[in-house]
Write a structure and sequence with these properties.
The chain is α/β, with parallel strands linked by helices. The protein has 15 helices and 16 strands. The chain has helices at 70-82, 87-103, 116-126, 142-160, 181-194, 206-216, 220-226, 244-252, 261-266, 275-281, 300-315, 323-330, 332-337, 369-376, 401-421; strands at 2-10, 13-20, 23-28, 36-39, 43-47, 49-54, 106-113, 129-136, 167-173, 197-202, 234-238, 256-259, 284-287, 353-357, 382-387, 390-394. The N and C termini lie far apart (50 Å). 52% of the residues are buried.
Length: 422
Amino acid sequence: MSILIENVQFNNKEIDIYIEGNLISEIGDVNVEAEHVIDGKSKAAIPGLVNTHTHAAMTLLRSYADDMALQEWLSTKIWPVEANITKDDIYWGTKLACLEMIKSGTIMFNDMYYHGEIAAKAVKEMGIRGVLSEVFFDMFDETKGEKGKKKVIKGIEELKQFKSERVIPALGPHTIYTVSGEGLQWMREFADKHDLLMHFHLAESKKENEDFVKKQGMRPVPYLEKIGFLCENLVATHCVWLDKKDMEILARHKVKISHNPVSNMKLAVGAMLPYNDLISAGCHVSLGTDGCASNNNLDIFESMKFAALGQKMFTSDPTTLSASEVLKMATKSGAEALRTNGGEIAEGMLADILLLNLKDPAFTPNHNLISNIVYSANSSCVDTTICDGKILMRGRKVEGEDTILSKANEIAADLVQRSLNK
């Protein structure tokens, strides 16, 4: 497939962008014929957004359990429902998540949940990229651990069967309080052997850290270094409760950090990601939303604004985390964390492009496009979403969206009812 975007605003100029296959082939004054021609007048082109932490199918639990403390929320609401989740639930919940991400400009996401092979089916059908990991718990029980390992191995093989560059297998060890040291070491060895990303919750709450220190006599990050778990293929999410030594260790091992400001604020984890200190230490930071049960959306535009404003409030410094920095977190930094050739509009890069509607009030006046994107715009400003050289949304219309919305409503109601009846 070839696409020509004509007369679109990019880097303060009006240019053409030619896409051939799944790559950006030419940028400038392009004189070629294409199968699809898009009029870019009154639109701006930016890279597609990347979400480095999701639990996609949790769209089905949007608004189900709000205004609760983290551990109570997990133990009394979320885990009981998840105990009854089916493959059909995962399929429609992931389809809904992909629809929401397409409509809000996200072209790639890093997911940790259940039944990865079913999530992969939804991802392949919807046209975006998913780094998919089956969540792993062993609860410090050897029998559960062996069962979980077999499930992980089977899951990776199932994902490889899709033979799609947009379905990317990964590993999903849950947290330090649900996975033993032996389980984490096995994950690292398996990741190294098969060159896989790992997706892990780390230092999300103060209690998590305090409980671990009481149990192990040391903080989580030095412990993870001691057992050999930390590496450059690890995406660690949240990372709110870190000290300077923790940050130095994470930087030394080139661990990628996913900042989830909306979820952290909503669950009141008690602190803000120490962005300035992380950057000073040399850490790599991208942006995520978390799942819809704790956010309650997958809108990276919203997360960009919350990230920037949260840091300014936390540091009492309005210059902290500028609009250009946070946009990079949501694009290039995310693509780097997930090891893809994307995150920027340049010749030879993956054709993952958003067209923003400059006639929207959010861009009027448009003194500074990047400032408007971060501080003024929202997901409804995305007119066109292109991923891997395919047009997934044009004029805010996505094929099959009415069916997905209807079916997801039906499935979500049934899932909750099944759980209440148990």
